[in-house]
Amino acid sequence: MDIKKVINDIRNILNKFKEIPDRDEEDNMYIAIIEDKLDSFDNTRKQIEYLKNNDLKKELYQELVELKSDLIDVQKNL
Amino acid sequence: MAKIFKDGQGKNIINKIGKTLGGVVLVTAMATAGTMMAQKYMNTYDVDIHENIYGTMSLLKKEINDDKFKKINHENLKEMSKEPNMQDEVKRFVFEDYRNIQENIDFYADSEDRELAKEKFSENIIKLKAKNSKYLENDIGDRNLNGLINQFINLALMPEYNQTKFITTLNVALDGMLDITASKALCVKNITKDGQVKELKTEMTDLEIKMGMIGLSNQMLDMYNYNIENIERSTFDIENILDENFENNIEKIELNAKNAHLLSNEDEIKRSSQSFNDLIRMQIDMTIESISDNNEQEKIKALDKLDKISKRINETDKAVDSNNVVLNLTNNIMDLKEKISSQDFENHEELMLSLNENSIKLKNKSESLETIYNKSEYMDMEKEKEKKELKKRIRNTSRTR
User: CA of A5, closest CA in chain B: separation in Å?
Assistant: First the structure.
């Protein structure tokens, strides 16, 4: 359950989105919001690690995996 | 034009992660107080304050009806928050309120006048609490407060955040937190002005009391200890900052421990003891570093400080004696004595004598703790195991002396 890795994977997907030349303003906004959220997720991860709370860790991991899967779907449909 | 996110897709993802983030961060903020409470907050209220705080970008991008927004003021906020067609505007209004206070806190955190910063932080946070209690439901006010604190911690955890500023703001937050928990408790319970619980009113659940009185302040202490460990000491004078706050921090931990005892909350008692132990340990570690320094003045200063620490441990309130904290500290002092005995301190006999005297007192204290421990009426298997371990360590410590 490597939360850091999933966060990095998501960042990589977002970076690939950024390379697409004809993205519009709305796309940029979504990418920026997701990046912003990822930073906050990363801080949350640090707190959860410190609290050593496995339930929260699972919860965060699960949510991130779902987010990654959603973004992979977006990527597939490009 | 080709779009990355098809219609509605991006919005769905954002909505989903907005909820997740609010939920997880809120739960994290309250982890010390129990997730049940967080669940209660998350499920009960319509006005999702966390969306305002953590979903800042999406909130600010939402189209707000100016006419509606202008109708809201602090006097009618509570009423307006119940209007279904005013939800976005109410959220924005609360968010602006938040942002003003956050900016105010940041402004003072930048200030070099740390006393002023502390004072202003407390003022602002109490103001926020008062506002929320007055205009919104109390629980939403608490939720706001938790959100703000969490936001603050998130900010402080950011690597690019200036480290000196970080320590200052964390100290300020710690003070502010204790003020706010005390003032919060004063509103709802009969407690003394110095924050000690005299009588608990029945309408507050244990969980709520824990959250208000202990959970948050302990969480701050934890974050404080955790981050200090992770900061490069060389970048600024952490030692002085710790020295300045030493007595204050010890007092606060003692107060937490007393409250935890009053609430018979074993977990919090242990946590307070642990915080106390960590704080002293940090001081001793740094003293060891200074003693290893070749500078004679630094050595004297370090010995003097060590003497003060030992004295303070001996005077420490019984409330933090619940675990084997004193014993651990005795061991710490012993380690230190061993370390410095190999160096030239003959010229500082007086200090060494005082240190010896304090060590003997500590030894007695740990022995009397053992007696208290033996008298304990209930002991489950785990405690029995701990007891054996404790006895073994006391015997070993006595032998090495």
Answer: 18
pLDDT: which is higher, B394 or B312: B312
Q: Which residues from B are below 8 Å from A50, CB to CB?
A: 222-223, 226
Amino acid at B388: K
Residue B99 has what pLDDT?
Answer: 59
Phi, psi of B46 (to 5 degrees): -80, -35
In a domain, B215, yes or no: no
Do B33 and B184 meet the contact criterion of CB atoms below 8 Å apart? no
What are the start-end ranges of the E strands in A3-76?
Answer: none
Contact between B157 and A47 using a beta-carbon 8 Å cutoff = yes
Query: What is the residue range of B126's domain?
Result: 10-205
What token pair was written down for B123?
Answer: 């003022």
From chain B, the residues in CB contact with A51 under 8 A are 28, 31-32
Q: Are residues B173 and B245 both part of a single domain?
A: no
CA neighbor of B214 nearest in space, from B57, B68, B34, B1? B34
At A11-63, the pLDDT tens digits run 999 999 888 887 877 777 778 778 767 876 776 676 566 556 676 677 778 88
Asked if residue B48 is part of any domain, the answer here is yes
Residues A72, A65: Cα–Cα separation, whole Å? 10
What is the C-alpha separation between B42 and B249, in angstroms, rounded? 33
Tell me the pTM: 0.34
Residue B199's DSSP bridge partners are B190
Query: Between β-strands B190-191 and B197-199, what pairing exists: parallel, antiparallel or unpaired?
Result: antiparallel
> Looking at the structure, do residues B270 and B160 belong to the same domain, yes or no?
no
Q: Across residues B206-216, what is the average pLDDT? A: 37
CB A38 within 8 A of CB A30: no
- Tell me the β-bridge partners of B314: none
- Domain assignment present for B224: no
* Final residue belonging to a domain, choices B155, B181, B205: B205
Asked if the C-beta of A15 comes within 8 angstroms of chain B's C-beta atoms, the answer is no
Residue B104, domain member (yes or no): yes
Give the closest-approach CA distance of B28 to chain A in angstroms: 7
